[in-house]
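Long-time lurker. I teach an intro course on protein structure, and each term I like to show students one example going from raw sequence to a predicted 3D structure in token notation. This year I'd like something fresh instead of my usual example. Would anyone be willing to generate the tokens for the chain below so I can use it in lecture? Attribution to the forum is fine with me.
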Amino acid sequence: MPAVRANGLDIEYESLGDPADPAIVLIMGLGMQLIAWPDEFCQALVARGFRVVRFDNRDSGLSSRFKGRRTPNLMLALLAARLGLPVRAPYSLGDMADDTIALMDKLQIARAHVVGVSLGGMIAQVLAARFPERLFSLTSIMSSSGNRRVSKSKPDVLRVLLARPPARDLDAVIEHFVALFAIIGSPGFPTERGARREIMTRWVQRAYDPAATGRQFLAVVASGDRRRLLRGIAVPTLVIHGSDDPLVPLEAGRDTARNVPGAELMVIDGMGHDLPDPLLPVLAEAIVKHCRSHTPAASGNPGPAR
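-- Reply from a regular --
Happy to contribute to a lecture. Here you go:
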């Protein structure tokens, strides 16, 4: 997979499909890599006439890392946020949105449909609010508005999420992720343990950096409540959320849809905080329908808009 220099960073990406087709830019979640977007899902979008771009966010996968090897104290950051105290972060969701725009510029994508999951949904929301001229549409999946009253994870889920096994013990790291996704995954569409372990092994062997994931987490916590920002979004928006998400509760999805003018909410029964194989056709169909509805005629990508 290639990398480009964008916004002062090396960003690893993959472009699938015909560059002349309308683009769908996929933004992955906390600590996740571009390969967390299932190949089957991406190819389904390409088969329906879209160019698909997936990439590693800063501080994930093979993209640039920020300085500092010490893992941030995430519990302390959460406590500070709950007390209304400022949370210091090395970068913001806005900076991560700027990365996406810089990548689009490098790839000569003037406008795109943007799809984000979890943290990626938050970045996509910021993109839609700040750069409406660069988006055809927004799809926010299993994400939130930053409203903490409706975004509280179940305590046992948060405990496992914040736990960090010894970084040098790859087997322990893999088992940690297997256990995490067993908790946050979709109860209506369970993934067999062996298949889950195979996926996690691939992820961990490609890249693993808990301190980097911690810095991404700080960006989320420091962003605070974004409802005012969401109310200014004028881009056609689809919000997708699972009915059984223990990490980002369904009410967070409802709250997101309520605060984006004209947003459509799609609730998927039995879906948790993952992208299980049986749901990939459902998600692809919903996103294709949304994107096609908001793709102007003759909307190729002649080059960057600025």
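Some talking points for your students: The first strand starts at residue 3 and ends at 6. The chain is about 40% helix and 15% strand.
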